[in-house]
Amino acid sequence: PKTPRNGSHPSSSGGAQHLPQTIIIGVRKGGTRALLEMLSLHPDVAAADNEVHFFDWEEHYRQGLGWYRSQMPFSAPHQLTVEKTPAYFTSPQVPERVYRMNPNIRLLLILRDPAERVLSDYTQVYYNHLQKRKPYPPIQQVLLREGRLNPDYKALNRSLYHLHLQRWLRFFPLPHLHLVDGDRLIRDPFPEIQKVERFLQLSPQINASNFYFNKTKGFYCLRDGGRDRCLHESKGRAHPQVDARLLHRLHEYFHEPNKKFFELVGRTFDWH
Ligand code: A3P
């Protein structure tokens, strides 16, 4: 019999767990869940349900690749295993660790307008606090310090895509990485998903009919074998109102970093 890829663990059902052949590395709030769910429409894709945090959490990384594999779904030999952990993109120690596991791995990175991503990031933390009945300051207060944008605010840093990408490019050449336009994935997911299919050399099996716009949700939802489903209610939340001047400053803040990012990847995005 053929030796399974990655020295996999067989199960009684015939499937096995494999190390991922592709990882969605980020960015936080870029649309990573949507991308994973949409990619899972493909019969040759087996996705881990939860964010695994193997490469960025020491208590996980210490347990080794055997532990990582044990977190993966059971899959058939022809399927690609994928996991998503958005924190990988911005964690300095992660690129080298991924490289040591598999220097040929294919990486997926979904990005969104950096200023919009900051608002989404804020909204996420705001709701996390609300759930724990803890107060969280209004957006102006976290964005500004002494009247200027506070560069120590983590959400701003996470949107400096060129800084984070540079670290990945020390280990992986650009062709190993596929950039998904998260703003386009929101507006019209199918073409973006087709590009991902091609990048992963999957047969074209996801169709336009797998997506329908849900007016109530205000986002595309998935239609899979006659079953309709939208993403969880925590995906696609309204962002706080930011006054026009502050928004303008936010856009200005990212202007140069965005240019650097476009140079790095040799393409542009439709960002403010
Ligand atoms: P918002 O909730 O701020 O709008 P992640 O999964 O990486 O946390 O990203 C969450 C973001 O995915 C959401 O941010 C939303 O804009 C985006 N998204 C993209 N496609 C979506 C879809 N079909 N349904 C819901 N959210 C989607």
Automatic annotation (TrEMBL):
Any Pfam family matching the protein: Sulfotransfer_1
EC category name: transferase
EC assignment: 2.8.2.-
Domain annotation Sulfotransferase: ranges: 20-258
Coiled coil: none
Protein keywords: Glycoprotein, Signal, Transferase
Stretches the record annotates as Disordered: 1-17
Membrane spanning stretches: none
Ranges of biased composition (kind: Polar residues): 5-15
Keyword Glycoprotein: yes
Keyword Glycoprotein assigned: yes
InterPro entries with a match to the protein in the record: NST/OST, P-loop_NTPase, Sulfotransferase_dom
PANTHER family membership: HEPARAN SULFATE GLUCOSAMINE 3-O-SULFOTRANSFERASE 1, HEPARAN SULFATE SULFOTRANSFERASE
Family under the similarity heading: Belongs to the sulfotransferase 1 family.
Protein name from the UniProt record: Sulfotransferase
Native species: Erinaceus europaeus (Western European hedgehog)
Lineage, highest ranks first: Eukaryota, Metazoa, Chordata, Craniata, Vertebrata
Gene name for this UniProt entry: HS3ST1
